[in-house]
Specification:
Length: 225
């Protein structure tokens, strides 16, 4: 986290402010230790994004995914609280954020992908879907590859691919499987995300891609089915 990516600070955040911030290319995250204190509104100069066709699914990840089952929006709060575990390095999700995003979830904006093994939640992610744009907020895993599997499953949903563990590539360029363009925002690029195909773009590039994605409806339609 770089303070040069901080654009504004407020005392509180509302659901409407959060939705407006995503549409404007910002996202909320507290500026204090562990996400406490005032709310920061961030727009990284170099933005982490995942585009259609860029997801990398290794042979080992495909193998792992065959042992998992996946759901969406079945355990949203459980996923958020797992992401917020204070034992995790860099934890920033506060009770205020959990309450805020739970409200967004109840209103059909925030969504989760859950990864299960033997009826145990072992990984997942959550974020906000607006049009054909998905703002990824956080992910977690308690078993190897479970967070990667959550992202791969999400991409599979957007691409119309029922099973990403097959031999074919995961790509929306597949005319039979693809359902259209989408944009997943990961905020910053990390080495972990880069290994999955997440790239970096400038703020201006991000704004152009965001504007295009907001005119669609794919992510919202699929996750609100």
């Amino acid at each position: 986290m770089d303070l040069e990516d901080l654009r504004a600070v407020s005392f509180t955040a509302t659901q409407s402010q959060v939705l407006l911030s995503y549409r404007a290319g910002l996202f909320p995250m507290g500026v204090g230790h562990g996400g406490a204190g005032r709310m920061g509104w961030w727009a990284p100069r170099r933005r982490g994004v995942l585009f259609p066709g860029d997801l990398r699914v290794t042979k080992s990840l495909r193998k792992s995914m065959k042992h998992f089952t996946f759901t969406t929006d079945r355990a949203f709060i459980h996923v958020m609280r797992s992401c917020a575990d204070p034992r995790r390095t860099g934890s920033w999700i506060t009770e205020e954020m959990i309450e805020l995003y739970t409200g967004l979830h109840e209103d059909g904006w925030a969504h989760s992908v859950e990864v299960w093994k033997d009826d145990e939640l072992v990984g997942g992610l959550y974020g906000v879907a607006i049009g054909s744009f998905f703002a990824g907020e956080s992910m977690f895993h308690t078993q190897r590859d479970a967070s990667k599997a959550a992202l791969a499953h999400l991409v599979g949903l957007f691409d119309g691919v029922a099973d990403v563990t097959g031999t074919g590539p995961v790509t929306s360029a597949d005319e039979e499987a693809g359902q259209g363009d989408w944009l997943i925002d990961t905020q910053w690029q990390t080495s972990h995300l880069a290994s999955l195909g997440v790239s970096e773009v400038s703020g201006l590039e991000y704004s152009a891609h965001l504007d295009s994605a907001l005119t669609g409806s794919l992510c919202q339609d699929i996750l609100n089915k």
